[in-house]
Amino acid sequence: MDELIDILDADGNYTGNSIMKSEAHKRGIFHPSIHVWLYTKNGEVLIQQRAKNKDTHPGLWDVSVAGHIGAGEDVVDSAIREVKEEIGLDITENELYKLGVFKYSYQHHKDLLDCEFHHTFLCELKIPFSALKMQESEVDDLTLISLTTFQMELERNMNSQKYVPYEMEYYETVLNAIQKRL
User: Fold this and answer.
1) Mapped to the 3 state alphabet, what secondary structure does 21-67 carry?
2) What is the tens place of the pLDDT at every residue in 148-176?
């Protein structure tokens, strides 16, 4: 779905201008997004398999919830909205722990250069996995994976086509932060 998003400069600062998401991806213009990593107290992390019709990383396993921040939309409001849309979970601002903002750029093909700043949050999953409801247009599957197994798979399969190819440093930052919250 195309939407109006804010334009950021190469340092992540808002420029005061907006653009359609499709145009930002075509031209490699930086824009904000959210990542919400959900974890359980018994050391599991929720990951989603991106829908096969997505224009970026179709079919790959990814962060629990990810999405673009609409033009003028508050970052936290966007995170709460995306969690509800993608997995049917109602959360509050108090349940979100802001981990940081991470710069990301990936050339999918000659007409798609994704340049984002991921506003990244952690959130404890307090309801049963079976109560989650996938947004079928965005998510093909959900699973819980132990932090240990996820870490091992990432290290072993960094060049495989199973997970979205973020920098290993990003994954390690997220997994270490979750570990500290257990």
Assistant:
1) HHHHHHHCCCEEEEEEEEECCCCEEEEEEECCCCCCCCCCEECCEEE
2) 999 999 988 766 679 999 999 999 999 99
